[in-house]
Amino acid sequence: MTASAFTALFLALLGLSLAVRVWLALRQIRSVAAHRGAVPERFADRVTLAAHQKAADYTAVRTRFGLLGLAVETAVLLALTLGGGIAALHGFWQGAIGSETSPILYGLALILSVMAVSGVVEIPLGLYRQFVIEERFGFNRMTLGLYVADALKGALLGLLIGAPVLAAVLWLMGRMGELWWLWVWAFWCGFNLLLLFVYPTWIAPLFNKFAPLQDGELKGRIEALLARCGFAASGLFVMDGSKRSAHGNAYFTGFGRNKRIVFFDTLIERLSPAEIEAVLAHELGHFKRRHIAKRIGLTFALSLGFLWLLGQLIEAPWFFDGLGVPVANTALALTLFFLAVPVFTFPFTPLSSLLSRRHEYEADDYAAEHASAADLVRALVKLYEDNAATLTPDPLHSLFYDSHPPAALRVAHLQGG
Length: 417
Hints:
Layout: H1 3-34, H2 49-80, H3 85-96, H4 103-136, H5 144-175, H6 180-203, E1 210-212, H7 217-229, E2 236-239, E3 250-253, E4 260-264, H8 265-270, H9 273-288, H10 291-313, H11 317-322, H12 330-345, H13 349-370, H14 373-386, H15 395-401, H16 407-414
Parallel strand pairs: 2-4
Antiparallel strand pairs: 1-2, 3-4
Helix pairs in contact: 1-2, 1-15, 2-4, 3-4, 4-5, 4-12, 5-6, 6-10, 7-9, 9-13, 9-14
């Protein structure tokens, strides 16, 4: 392939993905607007018109804002690649450090500076999302001070963990010969498994407080459910999610013997013990149906394929020239690859969404077997309402993006019709 042909292919796929994303967003906005005036019949006795309209407005505003984010994201991508941004950063760090004299230090500086540029551009979007959109709809509970503290802690943590990992990847790429991609893959898999194991006890507490679930009806129900399902957890915890948002959730975290079950305090405030039991039964369904293991396995398989592909592209001058960089080295290859990959993988988004929705149905079936389907339906409706999730998404938008089935289909499935 020639550099010009690759540039044309990159721009064509980028343009196609933009057109599809804008088209789907406009369909979503029209769908929620068209159904804003009445609660769907299946939910008429459970959701108020005011709550339904709030969800429609929230969805429309977030979708419109997503179009702005898409425009900024695309502009940054083009500026960094064909616009010469990465080439300019390479020139700066080549003069300051040198890719041949200190390849790892040069690579770290180059990649981190690209990440810094993207992060700085995201700052105003993140602030608007949190303090305008979330505030407008009553979800924001975060102060500006907490927002800044989170950002600084996240950046510092990312630097402390990410820089050594990135340095190790660059070292393996430079020292392990033609099969470097296999060594990097093995290292990457091991690192991710380690991160899953240490996250609950070492990383999550840096951002939130976790208190053991207190004795009472809820804890009794949860322990009985775990016993019925044969699931062993290292603890049941309540997280102070309310200090940041009014949204509620529950999740598993950890790996192996370090698995924890975490409930947002907002979830406990809103749902009854029986409804929380049903929600947890759904989460247990993901574990018992091996969805988590399957997703990890799929992620590792895809990462192996992508690293192999990078191993081929790293020797192809047209790959670098076609993305606006007239020189080639491992750090540039890594940077360009992960900037360009989303453009080429976007058409496969519906397949990922389909797999996720299938897993959600299977987890719902498991919950209906080990808890109450009616309680799960009641919990889901409350969560849809509390999180202002639209009950009337556009079918094509949902098919393409949604990791969970639309509310009407999911409730109908649980009710057996």
